[in-house]
Amino acid sequence: MFWSASAFFISGGGKNKSTPARSTSKASYVFPYELDVFLLGIVLKVTTTPFPTIVRHRDEEYYIDPATGDERLFASLDDKPTLKLSVIVPAFDEEKRLPLMLDECLDYLEQRAQKEKDFTYEVIIVSDGSRDRTVEVAMDYVELHGVNKVRVLDLVENRGKGGAVRLGMLSSRGQFLLFADADGATKFADYAKLERSMVQMTDSDWKRDALAIGSRAHLEKEATAQRTIFRTILMHGFHLLVWTFAVKKVRDTQCGFKLLTRSAARKLFQVMHVERWAFDVELLFIAQSYNIPIEEVAVNWTEIEGSKLTPFWSWLQMGRDLMLIWFRYAIGAWQLRKEHVN
After folding, report:
1. How much is the pTM?
2. Residue 81, Cβ neighbours under 10 Å: how many?
3. CA atoms within 13 A on the CB side of 313
4. Is residue 333 situated within a structural domain?
5. 114 is in which domain, residue-wise?
6. pLDDT for 291-332, tens place per residue?
7. From CA 184, how far away is CA 55, in angstroms rounded?
8. DSSP annotation string for 16-76
9. Roughly what angle, to the nearest 10 degrees, separates helices 262-269 and 279-289?
10. pLDDT, tens digit (0-9, with 9 covering 90-100), for 8-30
11. Is there a domain that residue 7 lies in?
12. CATH number of the domain encompassing residue 150
């Protein structure tokens, strides 16, 4: 039906054949673009499921206890929490940078646990299909601290950072869930800042929805001074796309240091589709749509060598993903659960 309609509009709406060609030129230029968008919408609607299908291989449901050699079943996000804090560390080929991050992280957590009897924790390192010795390095920490405090989730295949974070979250035991990048760019002691913000928003109740997220927005002027003009243009262009198509109330969506209540994590990660670099934006877009409180907290951040991101191509891909995220939700190809709106 729409094919005949397009022919109708492009030919000038069925006007007399003697009508001058230029009278139809505007329609012929405008409508093909609109038709392309219309067809893209149909394709996305037909080929996309409203809610994600979360695939988890059998081997990814278990972790290894090196003390016994036994396989043990991971916890489920749907279970009641048994610890205060779960730290999720997504890692892809991070054998070199991971030790420094884990040393800093575990030193901080151990000090807190010794001072505060009710402070219990776990660290879940999610190897995202790593090809190097990331798993072996992580297992050294399991042997040192035990499986009650450190566990390794070894993904069968590379899913992307978002996919790794999601499966780590789904395997956690904490009342509050923090995901932190494996490069250690954010000082782990700044967790205390996020914790204070979370207490103010939730009164330490994990059943309430909230996000406290690390932010580097206060470092933007310094970063701009150190970057090339090209990278600065890319940065501001990406921020404009985020503000236009997704999240308007958050200045820094990409900092890999975010704290969630268990309740919020249940609602967000079950409906999140994006598993690559742009997952942070979709996560915050969903939280914003659900009216979940979000507070940015300034953190100490240092750029660490060895990033997997190639500035131009990665930002180009994320820009494309941003527009597709907005478009899919706008046409109903992706949907949110209305019962989760606060």
Report:
1. 0.82
2. 20
3. 3
4. no
5. 54-225+250-307
6. 999 999 999 888 777 666 666 666 677 778 888 888 899 888
7. 29
8. -TTS-GGGGHHHHHHHHHHHHHHHHHHHHHHHS-SS------GGGGEEEETTTTEEEEPP-
9. 110
10. 333 344 444 444 444 444 444 44
11. no
12. 3.90.550.10
